[in-house]
Amino acid sequence: MSGGQIPPLPPECMEVLKHVWDFLDDQMSEDATERLRAHIAGCEGCFQYATFQQNFLDALGAMRRRWGVKPELREKVLTALRDEGYAEK
Amino acid sequence: MVWAQREGLLADGQFFGQDEFVSFTRQSTLTVTEPPQSRSDRDIAFEREALPWMDDVHRFALSLTRDAADADDIVQDTYLRAYRSWHTYLPGSDCRRWLFTICRNVFLRSREREKPTVELEDVERDVIGSGRVYAAALEEGYTDLFARADILPAIQAAIEQLPEPFRSAVVIVDVEDQPYEAAAEILGVPIGTIRSRLFRGRRLLQERLMAHARDAGLAPRPREPKEAR
Q1: B159 contacts in A (CB within 8 Å)?
Q2: What ipTM, to 2 d.p.?
């Protein structure tokens, strides 16, 4: 699936489209970050788009709380470490 | 001395007595930091600094193998290797990053030969591809897709199905919240490669999750009148 069609966008909105992940990942220069931040704050469409992308990154981050190790594996690792000389408190 | 010789970083003629502990920074500078750890000291430090990251190492191992049994073996091997080489861990440094690096190496060693991977240079294509996903979400009423609780199981499944090398980049940066620089160190590739893998992985995930929303019949969000911000 390739998604929907992107309508022609003004240059400032195109910059947001191209750099939204760099922006959200804090990978841009201070100047460029401020420029995008100012545009996003004043552009409804770009604000909604950045929110969509931020929600996506937040959802990926939430996986960390859902996706834990099974108690059996933890015990298996500890047993192997004990065989290696590891002593628990 | 023995540790330093193992790492091959000591210049000829240097000598460190048995009462000194030798550790290295990433720039290979040599520092004498503290007396050698007794076994119990090592165990206490290992328990405090390494064991709490087992969930994280397991997620990373699973992202590499996509097979639960293989991931379990890799986690066990990672912790055994970490315990055996605890003397090479620099106290106060990022233990999770150190464990991920070991985990990645264990995984690579467990494979006779890694499948060749394609490095994709066209990062812009992926970012714009993500824009197309958003355009579709806008048309179909799924702009809140990633804020919904019912999408989380699908996200986990989509990450597990993501092909390498994109999966590792997504798991390290987006799930484990590591900076690009750490991901580059763990995976042994330049930061630019992490960025391209990450962006491709994100685009693929978004495409699959939009497809999932349609296939699973997730209710689109009703259209609301625009609110003034």
Answers
A1: 60, 63
A2: 0.82
